[in-house]
Specification:
The protein is an alpha+beta fold. The protein is built from 5 helices and 3 strands, in the order ααβααββα. The protein has helices at about 5-15, 20-30, 35-40, 50-60, 80-105; strands at about 35, 65-70, 70-75. β2 and β3 form a beta hairpin. The protein is elongated, with a radius of gyration of 18 Å. The model has no long low-confidence stretch (mean pLDDT about 90).
């Protein structure tokens, strides 16, 4: 059974993923690190401060990591929280759904 600390970390991940802008940011860095400026440029309809706030939420949920390279800051995907969510929620629920469908098939 997960502890309170794990629940808080999962809550932070779900909160971060609830916003479409933050999901788009994760999609951008999924293929490789990008600078903060490159991420901001991908959202011309948002001001830089707003994008930086979204980045901070993603970092707080440990979904993004940032490191300085000279004058720029590189952002990269941190996949462990997503795997933790998958292992705890998606994988078990998928198995349960497949089992239910199999039992339904046996009844026909």
């Amino acid at each position: 059974m997960p502890n309170a600390d794990a629940d808080e970390r999962d809550d932070a991940v779900f909160k971060a993923l609830a916003n479409p802008t933050r999901r788009r940011i994760l999609d951008l860095v999924r293929t490789g690190p990008l600078s903060t400026g490159e991420v901001c440029e991908a959202f011309p309809d948002l001001d830089r401060t707003t994008v930086l706030q979204h980045i901070r939420v993603l970092e707080g949920a440990e979904l993004l990591t940032g490191r300085k390279e000279g004058r720029t800051r590189q952002l990269a995907l941190a996949p462990l929280p997503i795997k933790r969510i998958h292992d705890r929620w998606i994988d078990d629920y998928t198995r349960a759904a497949v089992g239910l469908l199999a039992r339904l098939g046996d009844e026909t």
